[in-house]
Write a structure and sequence with these properties.
heterodimer; A: 286 residues; mainly alpha; 11 helices; B: 615 residues; Rossmann fold
Chain lengths: 286, 615
């Protein structure tokens, strides 16, 4: 036989090829997730505990990030807030991605009228202004955790659906999918066996982006006073509650904002790292 | 070394970082020179380093690769000594590159003229008016239609062959010292290839362009190159003047390339009478069917064929003639608008979803592109096991056992099961592709251009495998290809398809004998021969696309036909004629008329194959 295998064998290695920025992003995000998990152990004070007589206190040895408008420890509040901000956003993103990917792949694999109806319904949903929709939902149903998660998921499902569908439509036209169809495979087998495994990277990238949007949406809701209710506080509420501190240059208003910024930028860097890896993989195919 | 040489390369090496950390030699100790006004050819299979060498002449290496050489001079310039900025001035000015896919090389959103003269404007060589005038001269030299106006079109408004010539005009606008042509005709149909090759050859000769022609096709290179460099695995195997290399190859590898360029006929087994697959009156196309039940874009217009058990039926035609659509119809991927498909007397439903699992099992399809035909996220083991589970309910140890047998059947080592498709070579992927089809234990395998994406030598090995499997397992094939030589090598019966209609049908031996349908004749005589000077004697027909949109009354080949009868052919459907040689053709001309119209221009080609079939 005159067929030599390519000189370089390429194994699929998950997460090995990450750019420096991607690595940095992963560390930041991983750090915040650890913080969220270990908040009770890390925080010196409770989240509703007033520990200082000084409001909008400066950074000090005792209160590394100062105190807030009630005299609570800002560091402890941010540590606890991480649980709400990251936890809620993660739950909402997972829900949105699950619905979006399932429906998107199904629409692509089925095609025809089913695809048309589903796509137009999603278009209708996507045309609603997100924040407005969230305000109406919260006003009608109250600001509980399930309502917040559900609302965010509904708002971001159509986007996830669009991305998943467009990726799946491309894969659906590939010859290995045609072979499966000619073999007589059912739609759900084609979805799970043939299409889904090849969507992982673009969908993961989209997941990260959507996570950032949801963090920002929930933070804006909290900033408007319609998110997580006191005494529990996510980072968005911390910014709102301490907005008066802006005049005093208090760290209490700056630091939660910095936390939001580091998380979102970290996730973005991490996604870019994934994206770079994907391009390299495709380049190797040639 | 020749002091007048336009290109001098000595001890060129290109290294790429290996995954395990070391360096891999992609190109190793290559030395050659091209004299001014000469055409040299780099020939080799994919992975032989031919494109890498061509690119290194532009001072370009792919990401991570490094070029080193004792000498690397183009014109008077030491390419390796150039800074980044100097390289930018050098490329597109002193060295120009013509890529394989012209469609990908043009920006679809800009007019052709703007793109053709861009190089001259960027390098500040001439004013826009002068550049446009020169472009028109080049268009004329390249025999493009309407040279004054073609520049104002967009890339999608011209044909593939024209686009390839426009790409040449783009490259020549700066009068480069070296023109690199990287497989410029590989993606074209044979009849188009002739026109493009002629235009290239003429412009290269007239303007005394120094050129490096990169190709895997010896017959094409034989027409245009003065000398040929044979490469394998990044090393030079042989370098010689074209005529000498073809007549007396010094190296064993060159000889094997020469042998693979003209595939030998594979033996045909005895056949029984009852057809395995019968299709009759198939009309199929794309788009939502209209009131008449016919699709708005009909592709197939009433196709009939019958495949006997254990035989191979070839369908040949240019791109767009509907041959892949035919495979899809048989596989149930595209339900036909009219007509009937019968497998061993059982009528099959049009859509795969309405066929029984047993019916589906008996027809398997193998696609052209080994890269897209295998799920990249699944291992070979899983890919082959799926039909075993699906059709035969095998799993666990039984499935593993059967997979190993199947791999052996297609001559692959069992150790490959753990690999992903991305880790296999093209030929290996195509074998896995076949193994997956065989796992179903089919009686009919639809082969859609299965060797087209492979190198000639690898493709020949696949043809051998198909022949062997046919004998061993009693398989039948519907073998679809644009390559007449391949179809003739494997198939017992051949159908020539033009614009979705069968123009000639008969045993493969009848394709060796005249008279032929005028289109079969054109197709046959357009296949490049290994003889220098063939290009000058090859036939020329007005280029056209093998696709006629919509139904028409007359013969679809009429606009390109050399033997047409003016009014009759345009208006009336050609009658089916049974020729004395045993074939049937659709043509208004009688057998005698065709015979007198087809002198023995292609006799040299017909003869050796005819003798091969009798031996």
């Amino acid at each position: 036989m005159n067929e030599a295998a390519p000189a370089t064998h390429r194994r699929v290695r998950l997460g090995v090829h990450l750019s420096l920025a991607g690595l940095f992003g992963t560390i930041v995000v991983g750090g915040w997730i650890l913080v969220a998990l270990a908040a009770p152990a890390l925080a010196q004070h409770g989240e509703a505990q007033i520990v200082s007589g000084t409001v909008f206190g400066p950074m000090s040895r005792r209160f590394p990030l100062g105190t807030d408008y009630l005299g609570r420890d800002v560091l402890s509040l941010i540590l606890y807030g991480a649980r709400y901000t990251i936890g809620l956003a993660l739950a909402a993103t997972a829900l949105a991605a699950l619905c979006g990917i399932t429906l998107g792949t199904l629409a692509a694999a089925s095609g025809g009228a089913f695809d048309g109806v589903l796509s137009r319904s999603m278009d209708t949903l996507i045309s609603l202004p997100g924040l407005m929709f969230a305000l109406v939902m919260v006003a009608a149903l109250g600001a509980s955790v399930p309502v917040l998660v559900g609302t965010a998921a509904v708002i971001y499902t159509p986007g996830a659906f669009r991305i998943a569908r467009s990726v799946a439509v491309d894969i659906n036209a590939m010859e290995f999918v045609l072979v499966a169809r000619a073999r007589g495979e059912k739609t759900h087998t084609i979805m799970i066996e043939e299409i889904l495994p090849n969507m992982v990277l673009p969908v993961l990238t989209d997941f990260g982006l959507r996570f950032v949007f949801i963090v920002l949406l929930l933070s804006s809701l909290s900033f408007l006073g319609l998110g997580i209710q006191p005494p529990a506080a996510d980072w968005g509420s911390l910014v709102r509650e301490n907005i008066q501190g802006l005049g005093y240059g208090a760290p209490a208003v700056i630091m939660p904002a910095v936390a939001i910024a580091t998380l979102t930028i970290g996730v973005n860097l991490m996604i870019d790292g994934f994206g770079g890896r994907r391009r390299r993989l495709f380049a190797d195919e040639r | 070394m020749n002091a007048e040489a336009a290109v001098q390369v000595a001890d060129l090496r290109v290294t790429a970082p290996g995954l395990t950390g070391g360096q891999v030699m992609v190109v190793d100790a290559v030395s050659f020179a091209i004299g001014r006004g000469e055409v040299a050819a780099l020939i080799g299979e994919s992975g032989s380093g031919k494109t890498t060498i061509a690119l290194s002449l532009m001072g370009y290496a792919r990401g991570g690769c490094r070029i080193s050489a004792a000498t690397l001079r183009v014109g008077g310039t030491d390419v390796l000594g150039l800074s980044r900025r100097a390289l930018a001035r050098f490329r597109g000015r002193h060295v120009c590159y013509i890529a394989q896919s012209a469609a990908a090389a043009f920006n679809p959103a800009r007019r052709i003229m703007a793109q053709v003269i861009e190089g001259a404007l960027i390098h500040g060589l001439m004013k826009r008016e002068a550049a446009e005038a020169k472009a028109i001269t080049l268009f004329r030299a390249l025999q493009l239609p309407e040279p004054e106006r073609i520049g104002s079109r967009f890339p999608h408004q011209v044909s593939g062959g024209q686009l390839q010539r426009l790409l040449a005009a783009m490259a020549l606008i700066t009068d480069p010292e070296l023109l690199i042509l990287d497989e410029p005709t590989t993606a074209l149909d044979v009849t188009t290839q002739i026109e493009v090759l002629r235009a290239f050859k003429r412009v290269v000769r007239e303007r005394r362009v120094t050129a490096l022609y990169v190709s895997h096709d010896l017959a094409v290179v034989a027409q245009i190159a003065d000398h040929i460099i044979v490469l394998r695995n990044g090393r030079m195997q042989e370098e010689a003047a074209t005529a000498r290399l073809l007549a007396a190859p010094a190296h064993e590898y060159t000889a094997s390339l020469l042998a693979a360029a003209e595939p030998a006929l594979r033996a045909a087994p005895a056949q029984t009478a009852r057809p395995l697959l019968e299709i009759a009156g198939i009309v199929a196309g794309y788009g939502r069917p209209g009131n008449s039940g016919l699709p708005p874009v009909p592709v197939l217009h009433g196709i009939d064929l019958a495949i006997r058990p254990g035989s191979a039926f070839g369908v040949v035609g240019e791109s767009g003639c509907g041959k892949s659509t035919l495979a899809r119809v048989v596989a149930g991927l595209l339900p036909p608008a009219r007509g009937m498909i019968r497998l061993e007397g059982e009528t099959l439903a049009g859509a795969a979803a309405s066929r029984t699992r047993e019916q589906l099992r008996r027809i398997q399809i193998v696609f052209q592109m080994p890269d897209t035909a295998l799920n990249p996220a699944r291992t070979v083991a899983r890919i082959i096991a799926r039909p075993l589970v699906f059709y035969h309910g095998l799993s666990g140890a039984a499935a593993r056992q059967r997979s190993a047998e199947l791999l052996e059947l297609v001559h692959l080592p069992p150790s490959l099961v753990a690999r992903y498709p991305g880790e296999l070579s093209g030929g290996q992927k195509q074998r896995v592709n076949l193994a997956r089809a065989l796992a179903a234990e089919p009686s009919l395998v639809l082969c859609d251009e299965v060797t087209s994406a492979l190198d000639t030598v690898v493709g020949a090995a696949i043809l051998d495998l198909l022949t062997e499997l046919r004998e061993k397992l009693g398989l039948s094939y519907l073998f679809i290809s644009h390559d007449l030589a391949t179809v003739r090598a494997l198939c017992d019966e051949v159908m020539v398809l033009y614009a979705g209609r069968s123009v000639e049908r008969g045993s493969r031996d009848t394709l060796l004998r005249r008279p032929l349908h005028p289109y079969s004749d054109l197709l046959l005589s357009s296949v490049p021969e290994l003889r220098p000077g063939w290009l000058e004697t090859a036939p020329s027909a007005p280029a056209g696309i093998g696709r006629v949109v919509g139904m028409l009354d007359g013969c679809p080949f009429f606009p390109r036909c050399g033997a047409r009868i003016s009014d009759l052919c345009a208006q009336e459907k050609p009658p089916l004629r049974h020729l004395a040689k045993g074939a049937e053709i659709a043509c208004h001309r009688t057998e005698e008329q065709l015979l007198s119209l087809q002198p023995d221009t292609g006799a040299a080609k017909l003869l050796p194959l005819a003798t091969a079939s009798t031996s």
